[in-house]
Protein 1
Amino acid sequence: MTLAARIARFTSALEAPTIPPEVLEKARTCLLNAYGIGLGGHATPYAPVARRAALAMEGEVPKGATLLGDGRTTTIGGACLANAALFHGRAQEDTCGAAHFGTILIPLLTALLEARRYPMARLLPALVAGYEVGGLLEKAYAGYTTPSGFRSSALYGVIAAAAAAARMMEFSAAQTAAALANAVSFTGGVLQSFADGTDEWRYQVGQAGLTGLAAAELARAGSVSAPLAFEGKSGLVRAFAGQDCDVGKLAASLGDDWAMLRVAFKPYPVCAFNQTPVIAALELREQLAGAALAGVRVRMNPYETGYAGMDAVGPFHTISGTLMSIPFCIATTLLHGAPDMRRMTTYDDPEVAALIRRIQLVPDPTVPVLSAVIEAETADCRRLVREQRMMPADYSYDRATVSAMVRRIGGEEGVPVVAFDRVEAFVARLPDVAIQEIVGAFALLQPEQAFA
């Protein structure tokens, strides 16, 4: 049996009663995080750009899918593009390895539920299906594809979106396999925008969602799709990762090594790989107690230091540049404390720029991924070291912790508390709730309009 067929057999059979309770709980937490971070990102400029593009292409569609935080309705694909940019606006979405599947899957499934009125009981199984397929591939191959310049969110997210859409639409295993194969043929996405500090990556996730939807709809319409899309001579694994595909090993992990349980959350509005350096810098800042710095040496895993934009030293002109830069994130944290959106968009701080010039970034394979060692030399010749070793489990917050985090962010960004109340009630009551509760929570960002 091919890998597409094996994955399809697994995902098409997913039902809430047979999914482990801890996996379902994590799916609820991912929903809370995505909607909560989306509310907190309402003031970022990316969703308005995506909305204009979506409406120019798709137009307004009565009884379609809502542009969250805007109120107008459009096609499912247009809502995917715009709402994913909203959820990705703070760069504080969830992460599964190097991929941000929540920003792809949750806007897609939300739009499908609203526009097509699918039963709410399908939401959690469809969400789990997407994370499991995307996470399976990311874990196996991101170590090969990322150094080649491919972005995991875009590369594996299209396939994850196709799996989620297929499960939401209750495809047969054969239809699901075709959707996955179509998605493989349509997938891609490079990392150069991180190196250049530009915005394309904000919109990649929405494009991944609507491309995955197209892959699924083509399968439903009867497309004839490559059975060896993953493991074939010119299939995904050899084309993108340059590896042989171990179909048996990958298929055996489905339902055993749940990708959903590896999903982590971001306490700060910086790249996932910069979360630990920021935590380490906060601890070191306490030790320094205001002492002047002569130099800083940062050791991190080469997978992270080699990621596009991580070694950037400026000058910076966009948050797309600052949130990726290890030197910037460490410098602003050491000087000013925990980074927030104001600090991450302050591009002309002379103290930060001066400290960046004294930060040496060292790729060190002995430092695990998601860890960092910061060595600081003070002007009075003291040497302070902070070694911060973290794992995905350290960022795998429970629902209460995520609730506190998104409410804190909402307080910073002026989001009405009742919006979070509505989101939390929605998540807790699934499936006995309507998607209009989410639409209504985001409508509270529009005080001049009266959305229920």
Protein 2
Amino acid sequence: MSSEKAGQYPFTRGIYPNMYRDRPWTMRQYAGFTSAEKSNKRYRYLLAQGVTGLSVAFDLPTQMGYDSDHAMAHGEVGRVGVPIATVEDMDTLLKDIPLGEVSTSMTINATAAILLAFYTMVAENKGVNANSLRGTVQNDILKEYISRGTHIFPPEQSLRIVTDIFEYCHHQMPKWNTISISGYHIREAGATAAQELAFTFSNGIAYVQAATDRGLDVDDFAPRISFFFNAQMDFFEEIAKFRAARRIWAKIMKKRFKAKDEKSLMCRFHVQTAGSSLAAQQIDNNVVRTAFEALSAVLGGTQSLHTNARDEALSLPTEASAQLALRTQQVIAHETGITNALDPVGGSWYVEKITDLLEEEAFEMIKKIDDLGGSVSAIKSGYIQDEIARSAYEHQKKVDSGEQVVVGLNRYKRGEPEQIDLQEIDQAAVTQQLERLARFKENRDDSNAEKSLSEMQKAAESNNNLMPFIIDCAKNNCTLGEISHTLKEVFGEYKPA
């Protein structure tokens, strides 16, 4: 290890000179289910338990641009997150939450601009100016084509909306993180640690290039770029991955994009423990898995952390299991002494060697993607998806053969079934959501809504920034589905080859 210190380029040892000595990472617990009312209750419970930042999970219809009453939403309302079709839903979700004080992360991509508009409207109604809001909108649409599939528009049009958010927030919401470029879902799909780094940063390159092609100065938007990584079970490899990530992004921004602001070079990231590592068998083992994964994220220098709950291989987490997941972070922060040291594993020959190897391997893959024409071209050709599928297949073969041991799954199994209390979806709440949406549409001024949608459509057909027009739609009570459908009429819908 060189004489490099934390807070110095290329930030291998951490982006801040004192790291956790000044304050610990932001503790988030990802939550959202059934209805805005029930999700709000969970948020207020988590805040009371010591969560320092909210993290919102949206249901699939909201992610895909459908209102709760759309035929495509049937059976999915409130299943994997909270349904948000209107500003009214967002207001209910955030009831009694001090938006001027709490940092909110919204895991949303294809409809990110719409949910951000709803959020700013609710804040404005609470007397909180948009320029004081702190939080993150994921807004990472490229990984949807790679690993999740909740895309709506073709990649080029989606990149336009991403860049619109960059530009708008630079002027109107300077404290807001405009994107959280996600390696998490790429890793969940089966990527290796090196692939997670390479594919994530290739997507990051595409976003920065699109913004600079628009004419934005790199140092105007790059300091608000953040990342979202996965913490898997290979303990030392994961620590090394986080250290390599900072070094790789710093070099990309300095050498490739000539960024001058030191904050533009910093890879700030959130980490979530690995959902794919959780087993439905012997779920108490998942507590141990999550603890080690969280520990690797902290030793690797994360700025924000979500710890998965023991029951998430079976259902959305119960209140009790969510609390235990949070307590895992709090024990690490306050009882282990880890926060007293900067990069405590730095200098280990093993960790330093893996850090170097991951950096080298990731840059080789980034070069390959560059040769293919960049991330969008590599996605369209299927190259990235094929590489991930190959890695996922190789890993599953090892699990199936027993070469890769998963305790309770392929070794140390037991026969008796477990009795587990699971979180359930309240069907009455789904009915109430549909009724509320119907009342919302009945009580609004349809002419104002239609006018706003028409103006937004014209903006989409031109080169105007869409954010002010989407916000105007929110002010005039257009629904998420109406806004999404109008944009779809202009941009079309992406269908994988």
Protein 3
Amino acid sequence: MKKKINLLCLLILFLAWQAGTFAQESAGKLFQVKGFCISAPQPKGVDRFVKFINEELAPRGINTLLVLVDYNYQFESYPQLSDSGALSKTDVKKIVAACRKNNIKIIPQINMLGHQSGGNKLNSLLTNFPQFDETPYIKMPEKYVWPNSDELYCKSYCPLHPDLHKVLFALIDEICDAYESPAFHAGMDEVFYLGDTKCPRCKGVDKAELFAGEVTRLRNHLAEKNRELWIWGDRLIDGKTTGLGFWEASYNYTYRAIDMISKDIVICDWHYERPDQTPVYFAMKGFRVITCPWRTVQTAIIQTEDMAKFIKYATPEMKPRYYGMMETTWMGADGFIDGFYGIRKYYSDDITNPEKKLLNPWDTFRAMSKRMDELTKEYK
């Protein structure tokens, strides 16, 4: 009898310890994703970037690094697409090693569909494969201005071109292998050219179906290698109904694609000036959603508090869909690190504008990280 009592006591103690451990783990995972998004460094900046990962990202508990790669890599599958002075595999492996040491998941991004040009220049894909251009009749201007008569923001590729995905899939596989990544970010934001009336393949096709079809092709290819697809969320929001406009949401009806794509896609939901409540929309549609601030400190703090509240008060079904937070920087790695350490004083070159002096991603990153830590302790 005494042995049975002792065993029962040990079992109770074990279960209590296990429950306590589970509670600690759950508290530590209030935000499943504590993310940071930045452009891949230039080769000369790799060691400095690795140092930043070790000394700044890791101590803040960052567990996800979204690296905006595009063509800053020495591709073997299509070497003509690589930027001049692109990162080598050796450079990338330094970043991978630092992240592995600090339990940080890396997710590389190459812009898919939209963002196939910038300013007055085509990017590498359309430069080398002009046949993929959705709007070849719209020529790049000598000097880019917005707005313009062509409504040109960025070029898009035609998602129905029969030779397109052989190229895209090779690039995606190669970059995911190089970064040893379990996921790939396809961008897919701010797509304005889609289903053009002069495109011989997709004119007259429903734009939501075109968008959803491309998302699905990418998602299915990644799933073959047990990788996830991540995308920005703006094209899945109705811009007119919500009043969010055509930058943060869609005016060309792609928002209906939200009901046509797989629920295992991760949505990165960006709003930079206001803490809009769209994470609830994505979570209710069945997606995991990450809120992404940029350069406005107060907005980022509110967004972080909102995400914590969504998690705390959600149903068991909804709770895991509120996936976390990710700071976006939208600048080169060296420029951000300079700003972070006070070498660069302002985000904007227009230092005569007092408002722009206060807007920067490094102070926003510090504020978001600090608030995440505070809320994790508060909600234990």
